[in-house]
Amino acid sequence: MLYFARWKIVLIVLVILSGAVSTLPNFLSSDTLRGLPNWLPKNQIVLGLDLQGGAYLLYEVDRNDYVRKRLNTLVGDIRQRLRDDPRIGYTGLGVQADGAQVRIRDLTRLDEARQRLSELTNPLVANMFGGQAVEEFGMTVSDDGLIRFAYTEQGLSQRMSSIVQQSIEVIRLRLDEFGTTEPSIQRQGEDRILVEAPGEGDPERLKDLVGQTAQLTFHMVDQSMSAEQAMQSRPPVGSVVMYSPDDPPFPYLLEEAPLLSGEDLIDAQVSFNPETNEPVVNFRFNTSGARTFSVVTQRNVGRPFAIVLDNEVISAPVIREPITGGSGQISGDFTVESANDLAVLLRAGALPAKLTVVEERSIGPGLGQDSVDAGRVASLIGAALVIAFMVLAYGRFGVIADLALITNVLLIFGALTALQATLTLPGIAGIVLTIGMAVDANVLIFERIREEARAGRSAISAIDAGYSRALGTILDANITTLIAALILFQLGSGPIRGFAVTLAIGIFTTVFSAFTVSRLLVALWVRWQRPSHLPI
Amino acid sequence: MLLKFIPDNTHFRFMRFRTISFPFSAVVFLVSIALFFSVGLNFGIDFKGGTVFEMKTNESPADIGGIREQLATLNLGDVQVQQFGAPDEVLVRVQEPEGGELAQQAVVSQVRETFGESVEFRRVEVVGPRVSGELAQAGMIAVSASLIVILFYIWFRFEWHFAVGAILTTINDIVVTVGLFVVLQLEFSLSSIAAILTIIGYSLNDTVVVYDRIRENLRRYKKTPLPELLDRSINEMLSRTVMTSVTTLLALLALYYFGGEVIRSFTLAMIFGVVIGTYSSIFLAAPFLIVLKLRASKVVGNDGDSGGSDKDAETASA
Hints:
Chain A has 536 residues and is an alpha+beta fold. Chain A has helices at 6-23, 30-35, 49-52, 63-83, 110-118, 153-178, 203-211, 227-232, 287-299, 336-348, 365-394, 396-419, 425-454, 459-491, 494-529, and strands at residues 46-47, 54-61, 90-96, 99-104, 123-124, 134-135, 137-141, 146-151, 184-188, 192-198, 216-220, 239-243, 251-255, 260-261, 265-272, 279-285, 305-309, 312-315, 327-330, 355-363, 422-423. In chain A, the strands form 7 sheets. Chain A has a 4-stranded antiparallel β-sheet with strand order 9-10-2-20. Chain A has a 4-stranded antiparallel β-sheet with strand order 3-4-8-7. A 4-stranded antiparallel β-sheet of chain A has the order 14-11-17-18. The radius of gyration of chain B is 25 Å and the shape is elongated. The interface between A and B is large, with 91 and 84 residues.
């Protein structure tokens, strides 16, 4: 065990050197790094959100909200198709559980109704590679005239999947526009989206930006009665009451069907009203939107219309003259910031469904820095204590164990940097724990050497036997810890995962440093000193 | 001169202690379980749902009473306010409101608005009811899965007696650690699960090292009665067991005192786990083998080397 072929020595030195080279950038400033030649690695360790501050937001698509809206649209479609000429008489049309149903009055026309409605099952293409088409709804027709639409399981899960995908695109656009640095937006499970924004100091604003549906619609104001009358009696068919975001909210009676929506916009920018100097949002419609807007405004000069954002009336101007240029202005009670946010939201488009924050963890930059400092102090003190203790207990061999330990820590940092694994506060704890446990391998070896020497072996033979016999024990002991670390990695998110990573890397580097570095140093020492008795 | 914490040739009769250590551990074990079901764990928001705010106030010490009064005006239900780490820092816990995630987000913006610029929000964590349920389930699965995988690993490497002994020992360590969480009412969070998994790793590490020596001695001293052989094995490994515990504890103590408030209870659990793990590998893991009726004959390999000698080692090649 004490003989090393030259190539092995070279290999060991190379491994240590590459660890050192990959650790090095962590100690250099970014200016120095830029000046380095290209072939040197420049990656620094990735700090987790708990160390650099930032926001972790887990969103869930509100499935029920989406289904409710979708079914309402479906009911609207059914109504329209049955009312088309020649009209088919029906009754009991409505949303029911996770479907919709309608009863056809005239059973002789049931087949005709079935034909008209069959398109509404809405076949969706299963996937890019052309699997079989899935229908969004299953349609059942019973002989007594009842037609039921129910969400198919596949249909719904595919819908969810495309909604999540779409939402991710929208969120990415919004955050890019907002100037969030290196946000990560990922899908999690079937209906969740994880947004991580390192260094984000204002999580509330971030949440407003990500979570707002931002469905912009334009409606005509219904002037057939006042909003108060409508609230007391019943709004006319096709009209609804909506409120302004003021306190107390001001009611408006609006035509339910929107004239135009946010999808018809191609641009939105902040500017200032030259008269009042208040911030406003200017928007521009696409070609078809501009045409519609021009027609509508020509017909309705002198009547008010409403600009509605997520069911709140943010502005209800009166049309003074036809607007043919395809652009318009929203003036509300904006601050510069809120006007800017609205412009960003309008440019990026609306979310296809409501998103709810199901988990949030925001760390301020102050706490992150404090944790880094505390972690650094704790590791240094921990390492110093262990190093001192090893020298006290094993003398010269303790020094060798300490050198192995230092190599070990160097390799851990090198591996973390090279793999671009995320270092978290529990991750630092994992490193400190590794420092404590890493010497275990050397302790096992040294104790074994002592034993072998007591059993009457010569110094060299005891050292040799110590290393070879401790190997099995060390492997068994470390593999059990490795199993725990791997499972922890599977389970964990964020910080905990960081702990599992450092623990696992630590196990590999520990076994490596005990069986190469420490053994090599001992071998060199033996070759140099030719000891007749053990200083251990 | 080197420090020798443990003399070279100790002859403690550890197996005699099993008449004390077994009933003692059984009592601690049962008390832990009883406490778990009667008093219960102090679940953190990871498993219970809810909201935590860590804030740095601009006065030292922080006016905890004032903060409590301000919070009371918001009608947030059960709210706990305590000093956390430095004297000007405060931790506020708000229980999960009725009305799910939306209500929870309302709590966050209300609290942020109420204190506004007068405090620095160092940490805000919100866990909704759905996520907390999932995290609790994932934690249970992780702990059970690692026990099962390790059981098979040890079974594969050793006899089944060792696997069963190691798992019983580990379960004892887990239960007693959970007992500590109950007694001290430490917050039980995701990082506590991480601590428990680390304790599993450490405790098994210790147990495996002792078992490894027992297996070796079983091959070497075939006629020695089991209790005597176990004592001998433990004594041989005693120096290592103590050394490793000491270095690990040194590192953990540094972390406990200097690593910051956020991971203090995590570290405390691990310190306790190291002590428990060391105790159990000596006083439980080995004597379990007697109870499980491990017989030397079962482990004998073909290396037929009986008696006290071990001259079969390969010669040094340096």
